[in-house]
Design goal:
By secondary structure, the chain is an alpha/beta fold. The protein has helices at residues 9-15, 17-30, 37-50, 61-71, 89-96, 115-121, 141-151, 208-217, 239-248, 252-270, 309-318, 348-356, 368-384; strands spanning 54-58, 79-83, 100-104, 126-130, 154-158, 166-168, 174-176, 183-187, 201-205, 222-224, 227-228, 276-277, 300-304, 357-360. Helices cover 38% and strands 15% of the residues.
Length: 385
């Protein structure tokens, strides 16, 4: 059996090596390393794939979130609501801009923002909602957009983990993740479903005026060289990373399908294990199937009940199975973001999840032998404990 990896980027590269190598060579030949032709080509191709008017490439996913908030003109003290159960980058940029982060609990099944908690968190100071499409599927965007419209709030989608996913509205309309709010952001970190070989990110919007402002912000506030019209940052996607993403973008749907195949294997293996709760898909999708793209499984995250999760984690590591706890500490308990405003009773689900979740290997190169070994070891531990 091939050695297990949490993400097997080397095997993925071997399958597209001639395309990648040519793309890199082309950039080296042009020597246009910043804002070169590869960047513009990727921007255009991603706009087509997402069905969005404007893609603004940038240096990483965290910058994408910060630049989106800068572009919307949010001011010090404005409240921004986001989920408590996610990676720190989401709340990090809110704090960096001296906005006021407001953390809310999540749903136990999808791990995404709880709608009732969102409603309760809105105050006259609230200016934006940042739903995080965690682990590969969208938050309840229909409800979030309805709430945002009623309160005149911006919706900024954190799409770092769900690029390629679809969201189906109750009227049958289908939109790509990241394209439903006023602005969406994503990361191209190597482990993402669409990942480059370094850091990279992008911002999406259909708003022409906002797009124009974002274009300036990512490049030191310049539209004409050495003329700074807005306060900006230095956050550009370099041409080498854009060239790699251009090669990988046509493969994205197949990459997501491969992850769903692995997820189906996991689900089938664990279906009779009462101590394991497998990932849920959106209410609009009853199964993980080839024709539905609602979950793209950036992570395959189980919950374990009446089992020592930490002991299981170590057991799998000792067996040569990479796995991870995403996330061991909720944001409201992180030293950097602790706030006396928070009441533990408001984070019942998040506090439960951090004790139960475990993410198993999930990538495009998993084979049946590897999946059989992983699932058998999980079941072995649970049956003995």
């Amino acid at each position: 059996m091939k050695k297990l990896q949490m993400v097997d980027l080397h095997s993925q590269y071997q399958k597209i090596k001639p395309e990648i190598d040519k793309a890199l060579f082309d950039v080296l030949e042009t020597s246009a390393y910043i804002n070169g032709p590869a960047v513009k080509e990727f921007q255009t191709n991603l706009e087509t794939y997402l069905g969005v008017k404007h893609v603004i490439p940038c240096a990483n996913g965290t910058d994408a979130l910060q630049i989106a908030m800068m572009g919307l003109g949010l001011e010090q003290g404005d409240e921004v609501i986001t989920a408590d159960f996610t990676f720190a980058a989401t709340v990090e940029v809110i704090a960096l801009l001296k906005l006021t982060p407001v953390l809310v609990d999540v749903e136990a099944d999808t791990f995404n923002m709880d709608i009732e908690a969102l409603k309760k968190a809105i105050t006259p100071k609230t200016k934006a909602i940042v739903p995080v499409h965690l682990f590969g599927q969208c938050a309840n965007m229909e409800a979030i957009l309805k709430i945002a419209k009623a309160h005149n709030l911006y919706v900024i989608e954190d799409n770092a983990q769900a690029i390629g996913a679809d969201y189906t509205f109750s009227d049958g309309t289908v939109k790509k993740s990241g394209t439903m709010g006023i602005v969406g952001t994503t990361s191209f970190f190597p482990s993402k479903n669409l990942g480059c070989y370094g850091d990279g990110g992008a911002i999406f919007t259909d708003d022409d005026a906002l797009a124009n402002k974002l274009v300036g912000i990512v490049n030191h506030g310049m539209y004409t060289r050495y003329y700074h019209d807005v306060v900006g940052v230095n956050s550009r996607l370099d041409s080498i990373q854009a060239a790699i993403l251009n090669v990988k973008l046509p493969h994205l749907n197949n990459y997501c399908n491969a992850r769903r195949v692995a997820a189906r294997f996991y689900n089938e293996a664990f279906k009779n294990q009462k101590n394991i709760i497998t990932p849920s898909t959106l209410k609009t999708c009853n199964s993980i199937c080839d024709t539905c793209n609602c979950h793209v499984f950036h992570q395959y995250t189980i919950r374990v009940k009446d089992v020592d999760r930490n002991a299981l984690h170590q057991f799998l590591l000792d067996a040569g199975i990479p796995c991870a706890i995403y996330y061991p500490v909720p944001l409201h308990l992180q030293k950097a973001y602790a706030d006396k405003r928070y009441n533990e009773a408001d984070f019942k689900i998040t506090n439960q999840l951090v004790q139960e979740v475990l993410s198993l290997p999930m990538h495009t190169e998993l084979d049946n032998a590897q999946l059989t070994f992983i699932t058998s070891k999980v079941i072995e531990f649970i049956s003995k404990n």
